[in-house]
Records
---
Amino acid sequence: MDGLLYLEDGTVFRGRGFGYPRTSAGELVFNTSMTGYQEILTDPSYAGQIINFTYPLIGNYGITAADNESSRIHAFGMAAKNICFTPSNYRSVMTIDQWLFDMKVPGIFEIDTRALTRRIRSHGTVKCVISNQGLSPSEARDFCDQAVLRNDHMKRAGVRQRVRIGGTGRRVAVLDFGVKQNILRSLEKRNCDVYLFPYGSSADELMSVDPDGLFLTNGPGDPQEAAEAVAEVKKLMGRLPMFGICMGHQVLALAAGGKTFKMAYGHRGGNHGVYDKETGRSCITSQNHGYVVSAQSVILSGMEITHFNLNDGTVEGMRHNTWPIFSVQYHPEASPGPNDSDHLFDRFMDLMDRFSPNLRPAAAGGINTVKGGGHHA
Amino acid sequence: MPKSPDLNKIIIIGSGPIIIGQAAEFDYSGTQACKAIREEGIETVLVNSNPATIMTDPDIADKVYLEPLNEEFLEKIIDRERPDGILAGFGGQTGLNLAMSLAKKGVLDKYGTRLLGVNEESIRKAEDREEFRSLMLQIGEPIPPSVIATTLEECKAFAREVGYPLIVRPAYTLGGTGGGFAQNEEELVYQCRMGMENSTIGQILLERSVAGWKEIEYEVMRDAKDNCIIICNMENFDPVGVHTGDSIVVAPSQTLRDAEYQMLRSASLKIIRELKIEGGCNIQFALDPKSSDYIVIEVNPRVSRSSALASKAAGYPIAKIAAKIALGYSLDELKNYVTQNTSACFEPTLDYCVVKFPKWPFDKFMTAARRLGTQMKATGEVMAISNNFESALLKAITSLDGKNDGLHLPSVQSLTDGELREKIGVQDDERIYALAEALRRGAAVDVLHRATGIDPWFLNCLKNITDMERRLSTEKLTPSLLYQAERMGFTDQEIKDLSGAHRAAMQDIRIYNDIFPVYKMVDTCGGEFKAKTPYYYSCFDREDECQISDRQKVLVIGSGPIRIGQGIEFDYCCVHGVWALQKAGYEAIIMNNNPETVSTDFDTSDKLYFESLHMDDVMNVIKKERPQGVIVQCGGQTSLNLAQRLAERSINILGTSYTSIDLAEDREKFSDLLHKLDIPTPEGRAVATEEEAFAAVKDLGYPLVVRPSYVIGGRAMQVVYSDEELHKYLKGAVSLSTEHPVLIDKYIQGKEVEVDAVADGSDVLIPGIMEHVERTGVHSGDSISVYPSCSLPETVKATLADYTKRIAGALHIVGLVNIQYAWDGERVYVIEVNPRASRTVPILSKVTAIPMIELAVNAMLGRKLTDMDWGTGLAENRKLYAVKVPVFSSEKLTDMDVALGPEMRSTGEVLGLDTDLEHAVYKGFAASGTRIPTKGNIYVSLRDAEKTEQAAAVLEKYAKQGFSLYGSAGTCEYLQQFGIPAGFLSEEDVLLGITDPESCGGAVETVTAGGDGCARDALAAGGAGCARETLAASNTGSAGETLAASNTGSAEKNLAASGAGSAGETLAVGGADDRKGSVAGNTGSAGKTLAAGGAVGGEGGVAGAGQTATAGTAAVPIHIVVNVPEHMNDPASTAFHIRRKATDYRVPVLTCMDTARAFLTAIKMERQPDKGRLLSVRTLTEY
């Protein structure tokens, strides 16, 4: 099975195909993680994208029942240097080839993934067509020209209706833009009573379960397309503690009145150093985003930048100057990637304990008194 | 926070001589540390006794002390320099131990200096088994059931409790010395003893084995702000059980899911934080392949071999960053030196696969066991990078010596199926070849997995290789097949051999289909950011990102892995070659595959190709770069061996041409040339058959030197004295020289002299002459040698200079030449000419301050010596003496003979420098770590040929110094003939008498003796404040355990006791209080020596007296062994065991009378009452 990757500018990468025979168009991005291909492929934030893995050996430990971040592969396709057809791990239940086939996702391998990465690095993310159906470059070009890429995948990546996930502790309303399982596991681990809300839920709906806090998830696409969510979240700001991750962070920025913009090629990997201004220390983070919050815009909107990227200085985290709201661009839930920032979930728990609207104002001390960073104990 | 403002001067401690377990990686890390500190404007003072290193170059540190690395000398240096801080974490275990003991003794406080980067507490927590264990328990990190033991009884009880297999690990050792596996009680007793002996504190850790689990390592860094990052993780090909230094290692891990990777990563961070290490550290884990259970195996709280590997694998300069952290910087304040525009606080991501393959010395030590275990045996390693595992592995294999073409070993291929199965069951250096062979014969992966515990993923990769072999040998060689094979790392030769295709046909396919490798960059970030450091590897892929400049450029071929006979000195030469080229305005490109070296550091050359030095790979780089020329003189025999094939391909070899190289190396042609020049050389013949050999004997007569042509480090060279030996040699060694005949030369007995020269085609410059202490017949690498020559008459020196000039002229040498001469008192003979850099080049460059490599490179570039500043002819002697003393890793290779001979065995060397020759000799021995006893007993056993008047004169001097001489029957008789009193000792008694005579200076406090007999067979001698308190146990093998314990007090009273074999157990205890327990002093002892267990009063034992003690069960403690053996080493002989045991107990073994004479000088010095005042320290430039 011949594989082909056609880039919008006419560049063609030929390789061998695997997975499901299919032709798809998407945005070509690269991920630099050395482990975690299964988590990455099932991360809903990759909806609409074709992932080029920079690590050259993919599929070594097979596919397991334990490592899915959602029920299916959201990426539109994948490219790799080498695919392992004889995986080895005690948990492995199938090969990545079989899995992609079952999930109806096309893959190509034996292409120069580093050349592809370098291309994306210098030209930015690009529209492309992946095919393992023997397409000629000209057919691929036609397919590419006709394909319209959406950037509002967050509207469909999450649940379609409200879902309650048990728990007896703090009640968290989760606005689902395409949540990763490990975010939910991180909340469950802390015994949260989680309600997942679909995209489009109104502020009233979100408040209808009397949540102690609102959590805004990661998700695919351009945050500016999530206008409905931004508007609803804006209504709730100041009414309850909020924690946003990735898309959730960007939606918070927009809701506060800030701006987001598209990066040339984003951050996707598990090795970015992020500086935490409040602790004066740095940690290694898992990242997956193509958009970023404009620092200037959020500072003007009452936010304080709490974290920035050590490589390019972009905003990696912020908190509101007045309200118990904070967010990070990166992924403290890891999966894949380092677990260094798991404590952020504890911080959210702490915020809810202190500022939940369900607490009596006297006990809560009033929501307007957090200025000065008191909630960042 | 930025660097501490109070640091203006720092001492960096190096790691001393190269030994197994502590090799070139510390030159690399120490050099990086020096550079990192110096660029901060801090005065950098380096101390190292190893002259072959880059770090001891005057350019690397502000001040260099080439002085012995021991407490005595280091204190002198600290006193003289008064540094603000000391960096000890870059000198391996040697540096760390030294710093620790200085700290403990209050030396650091006394001079108001402090340890940087590491602190005593972290080191103790990481290295002391018990503290480490309790720390792990405290922070909830899993460790295997284990016990800390100082007695055998504890060990046995533990074994009864948890069962076998067990692992024995001694505390405070390097390279796993004295550790091992025990499958049953017998092995347990043996291993535990070894372990206790090797531990500096007589302590071992015994733990339940997790053999068969995956072995995973993490390289971690932490700064004072508690920022932590992982540089790289690595997975061992072999499961737990083989020392990681002896394992094939892949980076990053290949069979771990993200959850497993992160689980161990988080554990690593937790551990380094708990240990509060500031800098780098290496953490080893075992991971159950059938669950996610893991255990922490160990932590190295410093930069290590693994961190050098991780640095090269990931492109992240661990040592440099660790040095900056030690100065007070935090990770997020530092930049990534490879990309130069991103932060150092990130985790490198690899977009390639790295394989490290060890280089073992078994080709040199035929007698040494090949079996691998927890004690490291490799002398060096190679690293290969590619975009798949198969090709990285094959590249590593071809990197080993540039000769292997694939995953083949003829000796393995000829095994029967049964033998093969057996071979696979044993973890030795050839197992991977056996596995490949089994796969070729159709063995299933899961069968091999069950037999070896090696992860099926790796075995499947081997199978991919053998499947490709089959395809190549059965299918037509299509362009696609050729490409697939190349992509998998097959060499041209291998493809040609398997497919039967002609080279020309293959070349056509290649050119027509453009099947050539491309070069990719190692950039730490998977291509995410633009990198500035040009560090490349080849692979078969689409895009070549290597930018070729239009500058004039020269390619320097490196020296590959560290092995015996080709050590770090050639890396020194390559690095200087690069620097000289840069200085001359050229773009200097280096090609090498050794991850431990400075030459493969990211900022050494203008461009680094991390590649195999196989001919295919070298040609590919040349094709890519089109350099003006290639330098093959610097990388030792490895690079020189490429000369012929480069010349055949019309590649411009800079300097001496291939024709001249061939002329120098072809003995017959060369001896004709010398004949023409009227320069004497030992008469010799090249013979191809046994008949020819014996015909030659008729002409030459014995003794003879026999060797195969084209050798590295005197491989398979031997002096033979009889037909029988010659016959034996030819039977054993002829297969070594299929391409070249065996050479038989007359053996010239005399003084050996080494001359290194730089030649420009018309003139030569001889910076200095080095004279060997040992006579001819001892390999020059194993000889003690002295600069300047001090016993040669001026006329001989003039002859040497004249011969050197004429030979260099006749051979058209341009660049370096090393000539070995013998002087028999009358004539000067040429023994060997090496048209390349040599082991002595770094030494001479340093002691004479003549930049030999720079001059040689300039000569190669066409400049004349007369245009340079250093003159021609024999340079004037500097006013100093330099004594090079070889260092052997015999503690690691426990079944290797230690006798000197024509085969090189040393792994490293030290230099003793002083303005006084005797002081320099003393410093040389002291730096080599040789114990220098000042009194006691010497056992002498000489071969007949050695029983001369001169030898007697030397031995008499020992007697005059107060030593008591003992000898074998023949030697005794001989000594008495010369009027030297000597007692007879049977070989058995000598073996009993060899114990640990070290005096540790501190008070010995307690000795615990075992009680009643049969159950007890261990005795522990613990000493407080004593750096080394050792228990010696010898096993006579017959009737139970015999134990000898030596206990030393401050006054050097030695106790020795031997058990009467029949009585079963005998215990001897030294008196704890008055330290006069039992004295077997310089009068020798006779009769039974028996010491009661638990003698509190102190009168432990009785020593018989008598000048000529005779038979019986006397135990005479032996302090020095002088043993000049019969020329053939027989591992079954008692003499071999005596030498071996003496080495194990660090009793000096002198196997040549010349060494014995030199050693006397060291003893005299050691005895000087005001030794401390007499010995001074100076920097290299002050001499």
Note: Chain A touches chain B through 55 residues (CB under 8 Å).
---
Amino acid sequence: MILVLVCLGLVALFLAGSPVFAILGAIALYGFASHGIDPSTVIIELYRLTREPVFLAIPLFTFAGYMLAESKAPQRLVALAQALIGWLPGGVAIVVLASCAVFTAFTGGSGITIVALGGLVFPILRAEGYSEKFSLGLVTSSGSMGLLFPPSLPIILYGTLSGTSIDALFRAGIVPGTLLIVAVALLGVRQGARMPRHKFDAGVAMRAIRAAGWEIPLPFVVIGGIYAGWFTANEAAAVTAFYTFLVETVIRREVSLRKGIPHVMTESMMLVGAVLMILAVAMGLSGLLIDQEVPQRLFALLQSAGATRWVFLIALNVFLLLVGMVMEIFSALVVVPLIVPVAKQYGIDPVHLGIIFLANLELAYVLPPTGLNVFLASSRFRKPILEVGRAALPFILILALGTLVITYVPALSLLFVEH
Amino acid sequence: MKPLLVLDHWIEKVAVGAIVLLLSVMILLAFGQVLMRNIFHSAFPGVDVLLRHLVLWVGYFGAIIATGHRRHLRIEVVELVLSERARVVCAVIANLFAAAICIVLLRAAISFVHLERAETTTTMIGLPAWVFAIVVPVGYAAIGFRFIVRAVEIVAGSPEVRRNAMAGPGETRVL
């Protein structure tokens, strides 16, 4: 009875707009108290984060991403993509997808892509002759593309919460991440086939390459370095943070040392802080869940209900889409410690599970009426939420198809992962 | 109300200063460590552990600032359908609830630091290791305080202050 009241109260507080960390913290504290465990255990669990090697990559990558967003790198990125792949049929749509994917990978899927790049690429699409509906749908769905590529912050958080190797997760994301982009790009090609094609201009391409010369090495260092095994995620983060700092302040002088740097540092650490607050209580909560053998009980319950592996995966898809729709990725990842042990019992590889998580959350971002991207696109382009949702529908369908394939064909994720 | 706001303001200033200082140190140290490891095949001893503790420091200072800018992650869908009055009530309750949880976490963090102090013997850059754990109670204290100040602003502030203290939809999630 008391438990029911507490649950109802927390739901009400959650809906009233209480921070996610306070709700989760209340659950963790209540759980510890009702089992007679000292509340300082919550802090002990959170302090374990200081023993996670990859913990350091979180602030460094976030800082680098905000640094790039603050400079003129987004403009250079779009210009470069346009010069290099704009001549393909549907080229401009592919340009939008590719630039958004790179940008989201570097800024961690907090919705910055739509805000920073949306206003830049939407007019380009319209000027090319793409319909307003198509352009709106494409920009809305592009905002979460790239979550599966390094140095995506949600992947790092999944790895931390599940105890899975980050490097393996990054390698696992290559094929599924590319699959989703290619699937959406096909929609663009179909639209673009009706439009006049651009010619490839070597002069323009050279100028764009030269203009973006300092940023071009970054994806290669990060993505290539991690895939090839030259760098750990941590080392890539250290190099990226130092390099972007040097390039955008000293070499390009687009971010000033006196004003720009404190601004970028505070903005990026606000996100890190907000995520850390959730991660901190999530560590305590996961310790409690494992201590009380909740995953085992959940597995037993599922088994007695006759749930096979396929039923479990379908339920997982639906569950993740719902969670991802009402919360953003960072809060949604809180369920990781609960799900990973259950999935293991069903014989699902934790690395594959990570990719399933991210793919579903990527899709959930685009789902109306409460997906984050729908929300942001609606306010950014001043369009009603339902109109954005309708525009995104073809993209949602194709992303859903891709997510199903990723979920039920583990080989796609495990192709480049050694065991 | 004035002294509360002044203190709130100073907390933010200190947090911003600390972030700029600590994050700069972290970027340099982390890069230096990569150079050491890949060129000289050695590493500064203890730096990796120090860096991971500093993540906690910049994280808590970031969270302190985030409290003043309504950047803590939460859902804001329900707000869209509420009347102005109901939104005010919800915002006050949400802020006070968050403050209450921070106070409980603060107590837990204080007893954690006491435990660490009794147990640890290791040192980092010449300081006993438990000193680095102090950011946890300090963080929860400052965050809890700032949530209370937000609630006070909503109840007693001018319309403009109140509007600032209440997050509009979408604002908390992005730059």
Note: The beta strands of chain B are 123-124, 127-128.
